[in-house]
Amino acid sequence: MRARAYKGLLAAVTAVSAMGLPIVSATAARAEPDPAAFSRTVKAPSVKRHLEKLQQIATANGGIRASGTPGHEASVAYVAGKLRAAGYNVTLQEFEFPFFRVLGKPVLNRVAPDAKTYVSNTDFRPMTYSGSGNVTAAVQAVDLTLPPSPTPSSTSGCEASDFAGFTPGNIALLQRGTCNFQIKAELAEAAGASGVIIFNEGQPGEGPNDRRVLLGGTLNEPTTHIPVVGTTFAAGEELSAAGTKVTLTVNAESDLHRKTRNVLAESRWGDPDKVVMLGGHLDSVTEGPGINDNGSGSAGVLETALKANSLPTRNKLRFAFWGAEELNLLGSQHYVANLSAAEKAKIKLYLNFDMIASPNYVFGIYDGDDSDHTGAPAGPPGSDKIEKLFESYFKAVGQPYKGTDFTGRSDYGPFIAAGIPAGGLFTGAEGVKTPEEAATFGGEAGVAYDKCYHQACDTIANINDKALAVNTGAIATAAFVYAYSPTLPGGASAPGSTQPGTGGGGLGHDHDHGGVQK
């Protein structure tokens, strides 16, 4: 596998040169390292050792590495320590964020007209920034559209008038659609609701377009003081029956002023006006250790950085390990928002690696040119060239690949919004692998790409070693090519779309604790 990868790196570099991204030759005045030699130093077993360390950190800290918790601080210390030891200039960029986690096991049980227990993370889950409470009360439907309309159109709970006649103390049953969840929850609380259940709207679809599956989302900030949960469409439809009474329990911790940090590392070499940036988020969700999501991407970027530290590159390399991504990309948003116009102009491209070793993987490349004609539009000019670079790598190593949409739900989003070319890799999350994908990539059709996505079982055992090795080679290739290329994708460009796409490719990557708001 490794010998094939060395040849693949050489072939990929040659292909990139043929695409108009010339690489400095070994006979030029500025000699470059041999690309195959560099590839040999970035080894998947070394990446796996970083993952094992992140697992140890999670195990020692309550099984999680979420921003604002000791597990994330220990992860930051580990990554920063490795980078400093390798000679990087490391910055820990601190920022405040509204912290949230669920303590203990949430409960949703029907007690009338007959008893039924709903399963947490299967039938329901607390929404991010839910309030706390333990209530048993009647369920009162609010402006529901049942059966659902053919296309999303529900306005349930979006206006104060929807709650006319609402009985204070009841639990409000609302339907997804039109306005964000925060508006629905705040209006319900203002009407006297003791709790809120928001169920998915009901339209069938693929991946994140399926409005029947378990609804997770965020209230954006902790402005609601009652328990708020999301459910599947089936659970919501059941709870809409007359005479329904439930027990709803959520014990949540919120802190408007919790602090966390991004880890930023800058190489000693290269033109500071031509920055090549690679990154991934370091935090997990509060439900598990996050070893695939996103220990895998972080570890791949980290090992590439450690082995690139001594390269006398033409361009400046900058590596980022984001905090609070799982709470709506807060770390990368903070970073980009605090760049001056001049600093933004220096960043010629951003490469994002979020979940690169899913157990039932596909090899997804972000669709920079919208050639798949689905979901979000093309990225800023230059994103197409990044996509072609990764395509050339996968062709060279003899591995299949497919496009995956820029949904706006990972850390490339703020860079695209700022007009910076972006690209990267993704092996799939909660989306379900199709029979066609199983025929192409192997694995199991009808099963999620990562069935442990955002769960306690996202441990070191959840890593696919082949996907990790192949994608590690792709990260090393991209870092090497762009570190030495005199022509980079980025330049002055207009901001890209900030609207989420429709999840092209069906890979799913719906960071339920941040991205879904309506």
Automatic annotation (TrEMBL):
Keywords: Aminopeptidase, Hydrolase, Metal-binding, Protease, Signal, Zinc. It comes from the Bacteria. One of its GO terms (biological process) is proteolysis. Residues 508-518 have a biased composition (Basic and acidic residues). Residues 1-28 form the signal peptide. Belongs to the peptidase M28 family. M28A subfamily. This is Aminopeptidase. It comes from Streptosporangium carneum. The lineage of its organism: Bacteria, Bacillati, Actinomycetota, Actinomycetes, Streptosporangiales. The gene is lap.
